[in-house]
Amino acid sequence: MACCDCLRKILNFCFKYSLVFGVIAIAIIFAPSANYLLDIEPRPLTVFLPNSLRQFESKKVEWKSFENAASIVGPDSIAYDPKANRLVTGSDDGYLYSIDVDDDGNFKKLFQLVNDELMARFQYKRRPRPSGLRFDSKGRLFVCEPMFGVFKVENVFTDKPKIELVFDIEKTSKLGPTSEKPSGGHIIYVSDVSSKFSFQYVTAAILSSDSNGRVLRYDTETGKLDILMSNLFFPNGLEMLPDNRGFLLTETGNRTVWKYTFDDREARVLMTALPAEPDNIRLSLDGKTFWMALLRPRTRNDPLLIDHLMSFPMLRKLLVRLFDMIGTLFELLHRLTTISKLQCLSRQFRTMEILNKGKDEFATGGMLIEFDSNGQIIRTVYQTEGIENNLAWATEVREMQSKNLNERLLYIGSFRPGYPIRKITLDKK
């Protein structure tokens, strides 16, 4: 009898508090918010994982060698200047670094693009983080700073580089009609992850399945800004076609690759239902094919936690709002106590960066795909498991000329701190 009473009390307790938590959860999800960023309506993901990796296994090759190169923190994108014979990458600390191609373990800190005046404009709430890097034919370096815009740098390897902000991210609302062909000036193409969320809220953008992403074309002489593609879920890597008559784009959120042609002003799906989230695309050394970096490959039979979450829109909405509420609470406590750690926690919760401190499911896999402009897969390099995974968090592949003519040399970048520039060699077949 005593046992029954005890069980009844436990059940009553569980029911009572589950009811309370349920009411709180409903209130968090449906209550109006003063923060427009939280005014979200997530949707289920409609692009599913493949049933198997069979089509990728048939093209899989093994590397001949693997090693770490320059120990730079978070080298997301890698550009090459053939005149100087040096690589340049951006780091998580906000600086650019140069790397000696003949001694790729040797690197030099260069400079930051974002000066104190620009930081002050945003009340020091945004931090520099160089991402996409490209050299043009004149040796000028173009660098994407996700929270500020696009910079042009001349005289990169000198003591007095000329740095210019040529595309201000705050001016993207001043749009003109889309023209068929660019004319005049230096044309740049930019993938805008979201017109709603700034880059520091990238996790919230993903969990809310935000489809406000765009591809923009900007003329640095006339200031003309065109929208070429819109309604995208996390547009990311962008690479011009070999004939410059269009470009390829990765839509990371939908695990899809698009092909856009200027003549038609149309985009078509080139590859979809990929086994992992695609990141940057870069032309291969011969200029005819492309290398694409992806996160951990998987199938419908072995999904990750994020794959399960994408099937439950209301749960994702609850998480985004709950983390923002916790961050707001820490901010209020910081104002009352001036404890700097509380302000740090506030930022980590509101941007959901705190999730990065948990178990990293993407640390046990990675994938590289070489394909042509028709979406035909040429070869793949990937791992799906392992404690120390060599391809984990690969975000870009830069192919360089190998000293051995029978080999192909690939440098691998990573946005994630903890992963240096990696180098692998493949048999040339």
From TrEMBL:
Highest taxon in the source lineage: Eukaryota
GO function term, MF aspect, one: hydrolase activity
UniProt keyword Signal, yes or no: no
Transmembrane segment boundaries: 17-38
Coiled coil: none
Domain Strictosidine synthase conserved region: 187-261
A UniProt-annotated Pfam family: Str_synth
Name of the protein this chain belongs to: Adipocyte plasma membrane-associated protein-like protein
Naturally occurring in which organism (per UniProt): Dermatophagoides farinae (American house dust mite)
